[in-house]
Amino acid sequence: MAITRARILGTGHSYPEGILTNADLEKMVETSDDWITSRTGIKQRRKAAAGEYTSLFAVRAARQAIERAGLEPADIDLLLCATVTPDQILPSTGCIIQAELGANNAAAMDLVAACSGFLYGLTMADTMIRTGRSKYALVIGAEILSQYVDYTDRQTCVLFGDGAGAAVLGVVEGDRGILAARIRSDGRYLEQLFSPGGGTRRPPSAETLAAGDHFFKMRGNELFKVAVRSMADISREVLEEAGLTAADVKLFIPHQANQRITDAVANKLNVENERVYSNIAMHGNTSSASIPIGLDECIEAGRINDGDLVLLASFGGGVTWGGVLMRW
Ligand code: ACO
Description:
Elements: E1 4-14, E2 19-21, H1 22-26, H2 33-40, E3 44-46, H3 54-68, E4 78-82, H4 93-101, E5 107-111, H5 117-130, E6 136-144, H6 154-157, E7 162-173, E8 177-185, E9 193-194, H7 206-211, E10 217-218, H8 220-241, E11 251-254, H9 259-269, H10 280-283, H11 290-300, E12 309-316, E13 320-327
This protein binds acetyl coenzyme *A.
């Protein structure tokens, strides 16, 4: 009997035109291009202008993905928007995107898993498709992180960028598609990356605003070690589940958090530079958008061909992590 799998049929990405370079940041906080480049690999990041919001870029990425899948918005029956920077609290950014696209036959919702959001979404969509509950699923990762970055905190403000990426999945029979997908979290590490204010625990007020409680707070050094270990472990797990090894992987697209994290994970997996995708220099860390942007850039550049084994791995606030292995 043929095996039914979920497969990515089309991808897209979009980001703001505004660029924030390391030279710009040198004028804002005590830092240097040298420090940022050597510690993170980042040279620039996209930054939304006033009036630009998350769904704006999500819709553009989604339209591209739907078109490249050869579908119409009305074909989508599941719409998952991974974001930690929604347009507003209610309704979900997923529903806002749905209305803008005219994807009126979809169940739409948001998914909060920080930088792992896109892989959480892929995993959910994979399950829904394989069980016959969804025919065509749209998974989006979209963030305007610049709205939650404290541009007086040199540890975080150099890292984050804005953007969106999307993928449409459908059913396929045979060897292609998602071979293995795993997601994990560990809330014991929640204070390694969090924004303490703005929710019901510390509702927005003049005090929380003045204290900058809505901004991301990060313990970068601690995150670094957990990120490397978790991404390497989950990559091995999905490879093992599929009966494959890192040597079989044609392209590894990790979450773009820091070039040193990418290098350390690749090193642990024995995947040499040529098989690892990095766009961190151009985009910084765009959280849930980083993997779908990377995936779409690789497809546009012709780096992924039919039959290629592609490994995705992520780690983010929560903490959350995930791994997805697919045969293109
Ligand atoms: N410019 C200049 N100096 C800086 C800057 C900066 N932008 N930021 C920190 N420093 C200083 C620190 O104050 C410290 O100075 P001190 O020694 O006088 O106290 C020194 O540089 C070293 O600081 P560390 O925090 O130890 O530097 P590290 O090498 O760990 O790099 C970084 C910091 C880049 C944040 C790194 O820890 C990192 O990337 N961690 C992962 C965090 C991350 O990616 N978070 C995103 C979300 S989760 C995820 O996606 C994985």
